From TrEMBL:
Gene Ontology molecular functions: nucleotide binding
Organism of origin: Metabacillus idriensis
Gfo/Idh/MocA-like oxidoreductase N-terminal domain sequence ranges: 20-119
Name of the protein described by the UniProt record: Gfo/Idh/MocA family oxidoreductase
Lineage: Bacteria, Bacillati, Bacillota, Bacilli, Bacillales
Ranges annotated as spanning the membrane: none
Domain GFO/IDH/MocA-like oxidoreductase stretches: 129-255
Pfam families linked to this entry: GFO_IDH_MocA, GFO_IDH_MocA_C3
InterPro entries documented for this protein: Gfo/Idh/MocA-like_OxRdtase_N, Gfo/Idh/MocA_Oxidoreductases, GFO_IDH_MocA-like_dom, NAD(P)-bd_dom_sf
């Protein structure tokens, strides 16, 4: 069993990673650290493991082999680099860091330490994504020319139960998060289309501040890719009941995915695809497999770098009200 320390419960997905580890036969949570000591102690009590208030002591503990980083995003770089320098394998929430330059510093530290880094990008493991990738490789819709992806929920919408919405208040802290709906929920459309459409070249973004938070709660982004494909990315914290959409439009057909239903339209007609590829292991299991057996994770450093690069360019585009080229 790989001994894991949970580093912060700041992000809402920390409890999901806790569950993934408990469901794994390869991983075991043995310690908790949190920049918020009260929150960390409470979580450690719930997990029945020790709480350590000093990060350095966690990272110096030879019994700890890996860490799951769910700190505020602006802490990722320092925490991950320190963990790598102490020889700890790292699993972390997206995004990896706030700038592409910071991502490259992290990669350098990880490579030098010889440890495994995996960023959580769960939709790359899904059957519908794998089918989309297969359809493009087989030319089932001809040459891809345009793609659209939307992921949204109503986390910012006030209700009687949650007057400020159900997302935690710190998700609107610009300093900690580095952004709002796009950097968090919009990460999924970004990394999916980066894989399917090619390397991003230029970005034009528009952010909305529907509930006047520090960060955007809705965003629309146009991405131009090096191979000429245009991508339309949409995300929102203010959309009730919004389905997930992934749409690929080619010269000879289109592939339409809505909430897991996959429909192929081309010269042979319209077909609902029932037989989809077998899903890949979830990101947490990819991390464990890489640590135990050296298996290369499907989620790559390039995925992490390009995700941050699009986010970084989109923020600049929204502020400066112009198209921004991605320089890597």
């Amino acid at each position: 069993m790989i001994s894991v320390a949970m580093l912060s419960k700041w992000h809402v997905h920390a409890v999901d990673y806790e569950r993934d580890i408990h469901n794994s036969s390869k991983l075991n949570i043995t310690q908790v650290w949190d920049e918020d000591k009260e929150r960390g102690q409470q979580w450690a009590n719930e997990l029945n493991v020790p709480f350590e208030p000093e990060l350095e002591k966690v990272l110096c503990n030879p019994a700890i082999e890996g860490v799951v980083v769910d700190t505020p995003t602006n802490m990722h770089k320092d925490v991950i680099i320190k963990a790598a320098q102490h020889g700890k394998h790292v699993f972390t929430e997206k995004v990896l860091a706030l700038t592409a330059a910071d991502c490259k510093e992290i990669f350098e530290a990880v490579q030098k330490a010889g440890v495994t880094l995996v960023v959580s990008m769960p939709r790359l493991s899904t059957d519908y994504y794998l089918y989309a990738e297969q359809a493009l490789k087989e030319g089932l819709i001809g040459e891809l020319k345009m793609a659209r992806c939307r992921v949204a929920h109503n986390g910012s919408v006030p209700s009687a139960e949650n007057p400020e919405g159900w997302l935690p208040a710190h998700f609107y802290n610009a300093e900690q998060c580095g952004g709002g709906a796009l950097i968090d929920l919009g990460a999924h459309p970004i990394y999916l289309l980066n894989r399917l459409a090619g390397k991003p070249k230029e970005v034009s973004a528009h952010f909305d501040y529907v509930y006047s938070k520090e960060v955007e709660d809705q965003a629309s982004v146009l991405v131009s890719y090096e191979n000429g494909v245009t991508g339309v990315l949409e995300t929102s914290f203010v959309s009730h009941g919004s389905p997930f959409y992934l749409e690929l439009y080619g010269t000879e057909g289109c592939l339409l995915i809505q909430d897991g239903k996959v429909e192929l339209r081309n010269g042979e007609g319209t077909h609902v695809i029932e037989q989809l590829p077998k899903e890949l292991p979830i990101p947490m299991e990819q991390w464990a497999d890489a640590i135990q057996s050296g298996k290369t994770p499907f989620i790559s450093n390039e995925d992490a770098l390009l995700l941050t690069a699009v986010n970084e360019a989109a923020i600049q585009s929204n502020v400066e009200k112009r198209r921004v080229s991605i320089q890597l």
